[in-house]
Every structure is written in structure tokens, then in C-alpha cells.
Amino acid sequence: MGKQTANAGILLVCALAASWLTLYYGRDIPWDFHNYHAYAAYSLTHDRLAQDFFPAGLPGYANPIGFAPLALVQHWQLNSMTAAVVLASIHSLNAFFLYLICRDMSAGMPWPSRVTIALGWLLGASTPIFLIHLGSTFVDPIGTVLVMASLWVVAFRQSPRWALVAGALIGISMAIKLSNACFAIAIAMTVCLPWRGESLRQWLTRVGAAAIGMLAGFAISQGYWSIRLQETMGNPFFPFFNGIFRSPYMTTESIGAFRFQPRTLADLVALPYELALPKSWVYLEMPAPVPTALLACVLAIALTLRYAFRFAVARTALPVAEHNLRLVAFLLIGVLLWLATSANGRYGMPIFLLLGPLCALASLRILPQRYAVLLLLLTVSMQFLATSWGQIPRWGSSNWTPRMTSVDIPRELREHPQLFISLASPSYSEIIPYLHGESSFVNLKGTYSIPSSGPAYAKFNALVSRYSGRTQVLFLLPRLEGFIPDVDGLSRYYSASLDRVGLQLKTEQCVPIVVDRQPSLDTYFNRRLGKMIPHVLVSCPAIRSSPNPEIAERRARATSIMDAFERRCPDLFRPSRPQIDGAGEFWTRTYFNYDGVVLAVRFDKDAIFYMLTGQTSSTYLGKASNPEQALERFDCRLPGRGKRGIEFFNENEGSAVW
Q: pTM for the complete prediction?
């Protein structure tokens, strides 16, 4: 069997396996899809930048190029199973390029060693962070395909022509998601490693070709989007790097992604062990145990000791193949940059794919072949058991339906251009394709709430004036089976919350918008999947109103309390002075430096409290009637010592105040 035939066979096997697993795991329509995935795919073919304003919060301004596959399946109106298979087949290219890396890595090895490398491939391809996102609408697996392809080229192809290709691939991956800049830097530094026998001129030609490819790939795939962002938002990478470009619509303070980053040296040392445990909020919001990080650390220590002993005794170094040196260099640089920027598992997918074969390679350097095979078999078995017992969760797993998503919207909301202001979280910007083409959409309240003053408010207010008498406000009803929501009470609350922007709801004219009300497909895979619960949005007309003095007074009191906490703990509550949201007795501010520190004041409970996204209850700080005492004893630490998920629940829920 020729090499090309073998490659085609492996490619087909990867696609079929990814498709079957996707269908088995279920239809995955996560929070992010409702918030910005569907919107980004739609905006790829519909320029909405000047028409909408923060339609999906901060992620709504992401370059839509990575959502091209999602845009195609939506345009073709494929059913949910077919759409997921198309996406999963694209994602399976990660396993294929990992196979190419393993194939070339094991070239010339005896067959027992090749078996070990093959197990390393299986270990990498079955890493939970990859399996969880198979067939999903996230762009991370698509960007990772380009990273893995670029790495294969850089590690095993020496010519300038191939370096140009590798640079172009990694440049496009950065445009798909800027977090891939970590791996672009790692690729660039790997390219700079000279090949054995390479002259200075050849090195300069190869490095120059890679640089040209990277710049060209990024410029071609990001250029138009950056021009449009500069024209509409005043920042070509909005909302990123606003401390440099200073868009008037966004804070100019630096923003960090500290949700998963180790905060101390002890946290960093413990991270490989934590990754191997079935715990949530370690490197992903859900449990996704991965033993390869711990194994890699143990093997790295053992390998370092062996090399050091060999050098100390024999004064010689063990030979290392050039391509292996490049793979290790990429991994080390990528890991360091990933930890320094986010430590988010989705953003580090190439790392967890590559760890498998590199663990296999390291085990062959340390152990006899039969023990290396046994070690890899044991690790693969542990990973499969963890994913089987844990039933690899999906972000929003449900049964398969005739359409990927559906929106049932009243005719009166579709016939005429209107302004839609979403107070929902997620934003449900996915309804935009179902509205009149000249309607505008704003997500007023979210992780980033549009302020009630300044240039952002002026732009929002201009939209309200343009659609005078044609403004609708959206809010979400709770999705609890058997629970009957108080629609009138919610309408009154949301109407009062709009006081800060001079609007109020006409609650007697509200109508429902139903998202994802679909029958199930008659398929084998639906026998084990849960039934989907529809999302119900309420749309109410809004009219101009005068500020309510009582609401304004309570807002001012809550603002004063929160400002005092900010002054005491400026590093915790950042960026400073975000918009305060709420009405009457309950007020909140969201500080997104930690992806969601919520500081709240409740006058009816005479309480000040705060919490992190992913925590099940709030941490009590003191009385709202005596904020000075609360401030005096506040230690500026994260609520619950920064723990989230089930770990926070087990430690804090028994003594929770709320």
C-alpha cells in the first residue's frame, strides 16, 4: 500500500471516528452559540458592524473567518446531525496531522518503538479537551488544525517553500483566534532553529520565507476585519489592545484572562496533578481529566536526570533527532506562553494533542521498549476510563433535531425595522437573521455592560433615537422544568433596570420568542440523549421615560459602596468603575478581569457580597447599612479563595449565607 493510499485511509478513519463520537455525544449548542457563535457566522456574509452595537458582548467583535464552516452549514440549512458531522470531519484533521507528526517521528524505528509512538498518537487524539469540542461550534479546533499542520511542516520540512506554507498557516490561525499568537511565537522560534549543515544564507532564506508567510497569512485573513473594526470602533483589534488603540467605546485598562491561571508557585507545581483529577475549573469549566500532563512532567524529570548523569560521567550528550528537538522546543515555548496568557484548556488544545506522542518518545528514551509500551497502554487505558465513566460532557448536550437551531418569532417583530435591546445572558444574538434586515441589535447588560455616560452611551442613545417608537427589549425566562416564572414581576424588574438609560417597558404588550422548540429526529443516537428544553425570550416595547428619583438615589448609594471597595482593592476589582446594573434593592457590578467577579449590594437584605463565575453561592462581606465595618475587615482576596465548581460547592455550600 502506497504512502498516499495510507494517508487517505487514515484521514477517512479519523473523519468517521470523529463523526461517530460526535453523534454519540449528542447535539452541542453551548452558551457561546446563543451568545456569539451564530452571530459571528451570520456576520461573515452580512456586515453588521455599523448596524449593531455590542450585539453579543465583547466576543461579538471576533473575526468571523473561523466560523466559515458554521456559516456554510447554516446557509445550507442542514439538519443538526449532518451539520455536526461536517464540523467533526473538519475537526478530525487535528488527529490526522498528529498522525503525520507521529509517522515522520517514528520513521526508521523498529516496529516495537513504532507501536509505542502509535499509542502516543492515540493518547494525544483521545485527549478530553479535543473530544469535548468535536462537532461543536467553537473555532478552537479549527484554529488548532492550522497550528498542527504548521508544526508538522516546521518539524519535518526544511525547504523555504515549506517554511512559507507553515508561516501562512500559523498566520491564518492567529486571525481565527488571537490566542493562537502563543503558538505563532512558538512556531517562529522553532523555525529559527538551524538545521544541521544549513548555511547562513539558507537559514536566512528559510526564516525570511516563514516570516513573509506569517505576515501574509495574518494580513489576508485579518486585514479587512481590522479595517472595519477601525472604522466603526476605533480599534483594529477591538476589544483587545485598547490600552494602545484607545477606542472610546471600551475601557483602556489592561484586561487579563485570569480564570484558570495559577496564582502562586504552589498552584503551578500542583497543576499537572490537578489536571489528572476529575475536577471542574482546573483548565476548563467542566471536568476533563487528562493524565498526560502529569506523565510528561515525570518523564521530563527522569529524562533530565539521565541526560545530566550521562554528561557528568561520560562527558557526552545523548543524540537527539532534529525534528524531535523542534517538537520539544515548540511544546516548551507554547506551554510557557499559554500559562502566561490564559491557561484555558480550549486555547491550549495543540499542547494536549502533542503531549501524547512526546510522552511516548520520552518513555522510549528512559525505559526498555516493552515497559514503554506497557506505560503507554496503562495511560491510554486510564484516559479512556476517565472519559468513559465521566461520559465526556458536552457544553449543552441534547437530542438531535431537524434543524441545527430554530427561532419562532412573532410576525410583528419581523415585518418592520426595530431596535432590539437584549438584557439576556447569553445575548441570544442568534435571532438576528430572523429579524427585519434593517433592524439593529444591542446587548446592553452582560459581562461588559454599556455605560450610562460617555461615547458608548451616546452611540447607544443615537440608536434609540433612530428607532424612536420602534424599540423592543428582550429578557429571558428561567428554564426550569415545572417552574412557572413570574413574567409580570420580571417585566417590572427589567423595566426598572432600564431607568439608567431613560427607558421603561410597556409590559402589557409583551410577546414571546421561542428558541430551539423542535421535535427530535428518529435516530438510534437519540435513545440515550436528554430532551431539549426550549429557551423562551420575552420581547416588550420600550418608550422614553424620565429618571426615577428613588431608583437614582439607591443606585448612587450602591455605587458609593462599590467605589469604596474598589479603592481598597484596585487589583481585585478591575477594570475599575464598570457600569452598575440593577433596580431598587439589588445592584451589581461585574469585573471581567477574572472572567466575572460580581460585587453586589442588596438593601432589602442589608448585605454586601461578592462571587466568581462558577461559584454556587455568594460570599458575605458585611452590612450595606455599615459599609465602613465591611471595608475594614475585607482582605482583598478572591471569593472562596478563587475555587469554583464542585470544589467550591463542597467547601462552602454548607455555610453559605445565600
A: 0.93
